[in-house]
Amino acid sequence: MLGGAVLWHRVRGRIADLTGDGNDVITERHAGAFVVRRRLDPDRIEAVLERVDRRCADGDPDWLLGVDGASTASLFLDRSSDEPELRWYVEVPRNELERRDDPATTIAERFPVSHDAVVPGDDSVDGELLVHAVHPRRPRTLEAAEAGLLGRDELASDRTVDVELVRMDLESGLPERLADWLAGVSRRVIDGELSLGPIETWSEEMLEAEAMYTESVVLERRAGGYSLVQYMETAEMAAVYEAYYDTWNPVARAAELVLGRVLENPDDVLTYPIESGTEPLAHAIDPDRFRHPSEC
């Protein structure tokens, strides 16, 4: 077992708790989620941020959503390494992805920030979705934004939504092999070849306390090792951690133990505030974004 397995079962637990059987909750079978990376000239970060701020000031969420059918999108500045990056998260329903021969390439080409200080990321990074889950009552409006778009100032002050992107580097060896196995399981779920069956669930009270609207886990494979990238959209990130540590649930306690053993820097994600090295720059939602499989 490894951190990805814990996250996989954690989100599955949310799904089963919300409806009792999971039949009315979106998973990776119904929607895809992508994290697209672009490197930044470290001497020109401020110029890029000004460009993003201007686009946010225009108030049009379509520039960040980027592709037809996209329902949720967030842009982050990642300063966690010597090579700063922009990371764009975007969620798209499967019925839209199936219209494209190569959806990953199409989405990468629609990266929302155009600037000569922004260059393509490392092609050697292979990203694959492990888990995707949507709260069936997630909001379709942003309280502080009439047009469904928040810039970095609003994200810093608006207490109605928190977004976070966390990279968790795995230890080498067995954790990486198990991550590959989990990716195979997720592919079978996406293709409809595998039914999840009954699993241990988290309490309804904990789900309501967390108010997790959208959650994705992407496996990134590099020549230098594997990472899990977790995206979270929630009402308040502090409440997620409070609920996580207040619960007696054995899955939560096992997650704490396992993540502490398989991650290179577990304290970065096991304590709040999160030491992710990323800053949210923009967040957008479609006013008709899907909540149920029938809408995908």
Distance between the termini: 32 Å
**Main beta-sheet annotation:** 6 strands, antiparallel
The class by helix and strand makeup works out as alpha+beta
Structure annotation, total helices: 11
Q: How many E strands?
A: 10
What is the residue-mean pLDDT, rounded to a whole number?
81
Order of helices and strands: HEHHEEHHEEEHEHHEEHHHE
Descriptive report:
The protein has 296 residues and is an alpha+beta fold. The protein has eleven helices and ten strands. It has helices at residues 3-19, 45-58, 62-65, 94-97, 103-109, 152-157, 174-190, 204-210, 237-246, 250-262, 267-270, and strands spanning 31-40, 72-78, 85-93, 118-120, 126-134, 149-151, 162-169, 212-222, 225-234, 278-285. The protein has a six-stranded antiparallel β-sheet with strand order 4-1-3-2-10-6. A four-stranded antiparallel β-sheet has the order 5-8-9-7. It is globular. The two termini are 32 Å apart. The relative contact order is 0.24.
